[in-house]
């Protein structure tokens, strides 16, 4: 492990220590609020805990925690140890405690510097009857880069939700003790939010239709009965939290009227889409290549050629066969519209265009197109790119690396002794391991990296604009963390490792690059597995 790597790990470790200490301070404050009787002891506890927090935070350069702690110490000085807490000081302390709790909860740019990577996402709240199970689950979730918190009662859950809306809640239908109390809590909670929080319900006892209906009506996306193992749950949580990171649709608009084109650009951008506008039909080929749109909007009548002709040209290219094409025109003759559609269009919008209608059409077409495309280019077990598409992306990235004169790395990764995992725990558990590694990779690599399932238990990583040493560091970090992860199999748990070969592009073909990475992977296996090896130059 390099020095930097080591330092980063240590930093993450200590960052956790600071946040833990912040929680100790908050807990002590809770006790102070609940009891007036032991003022002296509580005053001392609170001061000691806060001093410790400030010391840790300063030492590990966590600025916000340090200043929140210092503010607290300042106020504490005005609370004479042997007296009861005055209302004024109590009020000020509460304000400072709120500040401190924001440090541990809120996602800000500052947190990016000071908190460990596992705390970057919005939280997942876990409200189970069994606290021990909740904590086990949280440990697993943290491995996948989720930030999760467990709650003991409805009140603290509601309180946390109002301070920081979670991405998902995992809820026992009986959370809180009495029958269906968990569902009642969720019902109350959803009332307070404009958009519902996705909830995953679980129950050991009650899988009746009445309960499922009630759960579904208050935002229950999933209902596990009887309860499930943590692996399955994490996969579900991953699904619901992924929804928040939907990429904006890339829409190409060709309209010779500059004013109309501008209008379209405005509407699309305001709807959160990425628009690329051209007014000259002769630019279409270049725009298709440079922008790779997911949806194309064509004006019907333009000087020099028609939208229908352009559509035919687009459809001449195999890879653009399924990109939806939407025509725009003042044409309201239905038979002409039908004719236009028969020449490769998917929809027809009549000018003047109602923005709402346009956006709805693009959304529907885009969603369909994406799910069709996913069937073609993604592997169904892991959701990663399949073999063919991975190689296609590698070709593309080689072209880009050449153009931009940037480094490019390709890595092949293979699970160690996977056959034994299948043999010992069964094929479905083997599949779960493949999915867990794919989730792990997705969450720890950059958006610009590409991850493919290359073969059965073999994965390929394309890392653009990355030097070999950086690629190795990143993958090594992933390797170490993945090896720590406990894979659940019924009542047992086991660990899995992988080996990896990394090759940096040297102006060669994609095939030769793959072969070199594969060679390095072979060497990694030869060296005893669970290691990352670079290909020779
Ligand atoms: P090594 O450390 O040398 O890589 O050993 P290994 O056991 O991982 O490698 P080997 O090539 O002997 O076995 C790979 C196994 O992966 C064999 C195959 O049954 C299993 N496998 C391939 N695809 C899948 C899949 O989709 N799901 C499951 N569960 N197993 C798969
Ligand atoms: Mg293997």
Describe the protein's architecture and organization.
- Helix content is 54%, strand content 16%.
- With 537 residues, it is α/β, with parallel strands linked by helices.
- It folds into 4 domains: 93 residues, Four Helix Bundle (Hemerythrin (Met), subunit A), CATH 1.20.120; 121 residues, 3-Layer(aba) Sandwich (Rossmann fold), CATH 3.40.50.2300; 127 residues, Response regulator (Rossmann fold), CATH 3.40.50; 148 residues, Reverse transcriptase/Diguanylate cyclase domain (Alpha-Beta Plaits, 2-Layer Sandwich), CATH 3.30.70.270.
- The strands form 5 sheets. It has a 5-stranded parallel sheet with strand order 2-1-3-4-5, with helices on both faces. The protein has a 5-stranded parallel sheet with strand order 7-6-8-11-12, with helices on both faces. A 5-stranded mixed sheet has the order 14-15-13-18-19, with helices on both faces.
- Helix 9 links the parallel strand 4 and strand 5.
- About 3% of the residues have low confidence.
- Magnesium ion (MG) binds next to strand 13.
- The site of 3'-deoxy-guanosine-5'-triphosphate has 17 residues, from strand 13, helix 17 and helix 18.
